UniProtKB/TrEMBL annotation:
Superkingdom: Eukaryota
Residues annotated as domain Lactate/malate dehydrogenase C-terminal: 169-332
Enzyme class: oxidoreductase
GO CC, one annotated term: mitochondrion
Amino-acid positions noted as binding NAD(+) in the UniProt annotation, renumbered to this chain: G30, A31, S32, G33, G34, I35, G36, D56, N116, I139, S140, N141, M250
Lineage: Eukaryota, Metazoa, Ecdysozoa, Arthropoda, Hexapoda
Protein name per the record: Malate dehydrogenase
Pfam families in UniProt: Ldh_1_C, Ldh_1_N
Length: 336
């Protein structure tokens, strides 16, 4: 009798200590927003997450109370306002940042710089202080500049690890997969298209020549398809007519990227996602490529592979714009 209950107890405590080792805390900054709320909902559904920390300058108590009733393991805590920022990030394994203003029709992503640069800088400062080993997944636009800002902040604090700061470009891949599946009548779940470069206009470079399964387009088809992928964000901004930009598809893409990071952290092999990271693959010091993810962020940058002549031209056009966007972010971080 005694030995049976002792056995039960020791199994229970073994399970508890395994689950302690397996704790994954994800913080979302901007959690009350158009992206933040559905992203937090999708993350709450992920059984691998044990703590979901929701930070925003408004409304997080309500969002957290609402999500906390969902019957999944993640404990949900809401934090509101700058006084609670560091508590929300403390101990996080991953910090996802969709904080900041979205575009309205007629605006470029770069037009968001004046507002969003300082928001990302301040969030990165807090992360560098209380969660320097966390992976950062930055969604806030302009991604081509906000990622270099966060990296500079981490460098200044002496805690920069280039394997752990990512700009989330997953939505570009999701769109490329969807549009190509539509064009070729394939199941979108079977299509995988790498999209490299950055996350705005001509810096978005879909590598359709590397699509899996392999697909063929005439030059007359390839050009408009590429432009549609590059301008898909604007397509949504126009359709929303002043009510913001992509939120639901971005929440899906952000959750996909975050859950891939978690799976890799937990030792699952062959987890590959594109991400905008510090890079020496091209002349641009930050560049998105397929990345093999591991226990500590990037295991290996998989590079750009063989480009078609059409894609080489896209790359040539993207580099000057990317370099300009990156410099703007770096200069801002060093000035302020
Ligand atoms: N990377 C991508 O592919 C991609 C896709 C879509 C949108 N975005 C970008 O994501 C950002 C957010 O878009 P959205 O539609 O969710 O906007 P939104 O306005 O609906 O939500 C933004 C949220 O950020 C919060 N916020 C503002 N300042 C903050 C601060 N200092 N700290 C914490 N939270 C703060 C706001 O209170 C709000 O809840 C925009 O910059 C948008 O351009 C990026
Ligand atoms: O287009 C935008 O402004 C938002 C986002 O970057 C997107 O690609 O949908």
């Amino acid at each position: 009798m005694f030995s049976k209950s002792f056995k039960k107890l020791s199994i229970a405590s073994r399970n508890l200590s395994t689950s302690r080792q397996n704790n994954i805390k994800v913080a979302v900054a901007g959690a009350s927003g158009g992206i933040g709320q559905p992203l937090s909902l999708l993350l709450k559904q992920c059984p691998l997450i044990t703590e979901l920390s929701l930070y925003d300058i408004v409304h997080t108590p309500g969002v957290a109370a609402d999500l906390s009733h969902i019957e999944t393991p993640a404990r949900v805590n809401g934090y509101m306002g700058p006084d609670q920022l560091k508590d929300s990030f403390k101990g996080a394994d991953i910090i996802v940042i969709p904080a900041g203003v979205p575009r309205k029709p007629g605006m470029t992503r770069d037009d968001l710089f004046n507002t969003n640069a300082s928001i990302v800088r301040d969030l990165a400062k807090a992360a560098a202080e209380v969660a320097p080993k966390a992976c950062l997944a930055i969604i806030s636009n302009p991604v081509n500049s906000t990622v270099p800002i966060a990296a500079e902040v981490f460098k200044k604090a002496g805690v920069f690890d280039p394997k752990k700061i990512f700009g989330v470009t997953t939505l570009d891949i999701v769109r490329a997969n969807t549009f190509i599946a539509e064009a070729k009548q394939l199941n979108p779940l079977d299509v995988k298209v790498p999209v490299i470069g950055g996350h705005s206009g001509v810096t978005i470079i879909p590598l359709i020549s590397q699509a899996k399964p392999s697909v063929l387009f005439t030059p007359e088809e390839l050009k408009p398809l590429t432009v549609r992928i590059q301008e898909a964000g604007t397509e949504v901004v126009k359709a929303k007519a002043g009510a913001g930009s992509a939120t639901l598809s971005m929440a899906y893409a952000g959750a996909r990227f975050t859950i891939s990071l978690i799976k890799a952290m937990k030792g699952e092999s062959n987890i590959i996602e594109c991400g905008f990271v510090q890079s020496d693959i091209t002349e641009a010091s930050f560049f998105s490529t397929p990345l093999l993810l591991g226990k500590n962020g990037i295991d290996k940058n998989l590079g750009i592979g063989e480009l078609s002549p059409f894609e080489k031209d896209l790359l040539k056009e993207a580099i000057p714009e990317l370099k300009k966007n990156i410099k703007k972010g770096v200069d801002f971080a060093n000035r302020t």
